[in-house]
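Posting for a labmate who doesn't have an account.
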Amino acid sequence: MGNLATGGGSSAVAASAHAGCERFRHTDPMLTGKSRRALAADLDKPDTSAGIPEARFMRAMVFERLVRDEKFVSELLTTTVGTLGLTRPPGVRRADGKVTEAATALALSQAHLKAVHQGEATMITGLAVPYPGIHASVGATPVKPDFAVVAPRRSEDGGVAEADGDAPIIGSWLVMGDAKDYERVRSRIDDQRMLKGFLQVALGAEAARAWASLPDGMKVHRSGALAVPRNSFLQPVAVVERLDDHCIEVMERAAERQALLADSSVTWPVASEDVASFVEHLELTFDPAACVSCALFNYCRSQVRDSAEPVSRLIEIGVRPELRPSLLGLIDGSGEVKDDPESLAATVMATIDGLPSSTGQLRTDPVGLPGTISVVLAKSDAAALGVHGIGIQRVAADGVEPWKFEIFDNPQAPATRLAVMAALGTALDAALLESSANGSEDSAAVHIVLPDAATADLLVSIADSLAGVELSRLRWERDLEQGRKALTWGGEPATVPEALTDHQRLAVSFLLDQDRSRAMTLRWLLIDLRAVMKRHFAVGGPLVDHGRLDYLVTWASATAPLEHREISDGIADSPHTPGARLTNDRSDAIHRAARRGGDTAYEELVTEELTYKAEVMDCAAGVLERLPESKLRPVNQALEATAQQVWRRRRDLHASDLVRFGRVAWFWRNNQVDAIDADSKCAVQLAALGNAHTLRDLALNAGTREVAFAEVTSTTPLRLAPKSRRFTDGTTIAMLQHEEDLAVEADATTLKVQAGSFKFGQLSVGPLEADDQTTTDGSFAWLPKIAPVVSVGDRLVVADMAWFGGSFKSGHELAVTRPGPDRTSAPKPDCHDGSYAATPDEHRWCCRSHEDAEAEYSDELAERRERGELNPQAWPPLLDFDQFDTAADGTPTGDHDETVAMDAAADLTPDDLD
């Protein structure tokens, strides 16, 4: 049936991402004979969303080349062999399968002989193995693993080799591997991406296990290796994992393909004239968030939009299947809505009406206040931490300063990352000087305002990279002082970099404080402006579009009903984005202009992109400026100001200010458990007090014990009928909402910001009392000291005062316990520059500077290296869990541009790379 492309087995991995969709599974290229992108074009709904930017594809190809580089072959091989507990081989080799089955079979045979007779290990790249269970006669191209390791098999126990070097060699192990240039976000790779990578490794393992050409005595190992970047230079490291579950999944997908190919009722591949009817009758499972990476997204979405079924509107905007039945009443006109989250119901209503609604949230954010710094970035797809340009706007004490843009000619260079931190540090320094009150610790907080979370992740990832380099520099300086060579973790010569400037270190330190506190809901160093807008407005259209700031601004600024499809399509067709990541078309245009050089096109394109992002930020700030201020705003400001007092001491004393979340001590993590609990409880209580949708969603949730609806059944005397059986005789309750009005935002409500709590007064608080009428209608007498003005039939939202720690003698107050700042491994208020030097034992875990700490660690590493306990002497090889962005002298990196045949990416989607 012609030549079928499996995409190196990647289509099976992609099927796992969309495995619930029959249409996706039955349009596999192995079945239809053409890619889904070509299929979409035949259906007159060409793919416009699932393409791969040229720079992104180039980066993937550069990483695969690095995996095959001689420098990393031995490193990947020994790491894989050592992690599996195999004996250290006396020698390592490399071979090339030349992406053909014959060459792969020959390479495997030779590697097997070397393993059996000489004990050597071989890494084979460019393999090609027949697809499992599907004969080559049908035209299927082979699975193409990026690499595999062949090592001696001395003895086996349950399929796992023992590390007994004296045991006789009885065969060889084949460990399959693959290469994926996953971006590290905040020093780690997303687990879901790693899962997809290991599914592809598992497919290669199963293909090899079923191959008749596998040498006698060679067994496929139950574990596999995934080569991923260990730093921003794209230098690979091997991650090893058991494949048992992954193998089951990929073989289920393979069995389904076999069954479909054997189905005599369908002629494969489908003829061009039959494609439309064939695809149309395949059941689809549409999710606007997950399906966007499928090339058939436009075709499926058009079918959902054209459907007359009421539920199709809910499917179109991304409502989960289990929530659709209770929301159908809003679509079919019956008006019957069951107990679904009110925030979701508001989204459905906004979709129907074309106008946003308020969530009842008043302003608690600091956007627009002095001390805030707005930042936009244009990210390069050619590098994990690449930046084309940055825009910064500071709100000073005397007003808003104009935007300042800076364009970088070499986006992926380390110098660019330093320049980004220098620009940000300069603005932070000015903001900190203005916020300080006569140099005292009682200073206002400073904030960085960003268009979305992805932009924040990029900045923090850059800070993490530079912090690692700075810590390595401190260790190497100590080595040089002691007459030792500066060596990397692997024992290779390293070049000592320049120290961070004061402004660079300030920005790095500030961003890493956000990274350490990322589990804390109430920390607001970095303000996600998109999330702020979402707290105020319930907008319509697909939920996935709510992740774009420009989409929310368009809705929030509406004065007449909107057509949500027009807004969604306009956003999708826009050449610009509000966040750091670019559209595919704009990424390609900027990448080509940068490679071309010699003209002003690159600078103009980047400036245009930054200008759009800045304008969206300004529009969002303008929308927020028109909203009233909440009484809870001082609460959030007080929490962040107190937390930043600790950070300022860290910064001044250089005490653990360059430590990211992933490198904190174990006792810090243990202490975080209680701190996170306190933070979470306070965050939920403040959200309940200040956001009507959040409060009502809590009351609707059957698992919430502390909040419930109550109906007023009588005003003289005042009686309530709680909608929860947990609210009984003797329960003291506080009214948090009356109809649409939040009690905490009433004019009469008072607020006291105290050291240990936030106390709200003049609220309606009192006990429920049961009487004879309670047994009749379930209502209770309610005796608040301050009686609310209510009418019979009014709906209230009430809370159990025990949730807030109990009642006060005043009879009208409630308190939200204030979580304390993170003081673990942090300088105390009385710590100063000489504290550690004077009494090191007393101040070892509070104010010891990085300079002292890294000098001690450098001496410790030198002693371990002298004893042969570090790489390259140690076996199995030790893994560098810090994984700093430091490269040995002369090692190849991914920071250089190479010519890549872009036509190879024409039929691929992000699923194939990720």
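Reply:
Got it, the structure tokens are right above this. The CA atoms of residues 727 and 800 lie 8 Å apart.
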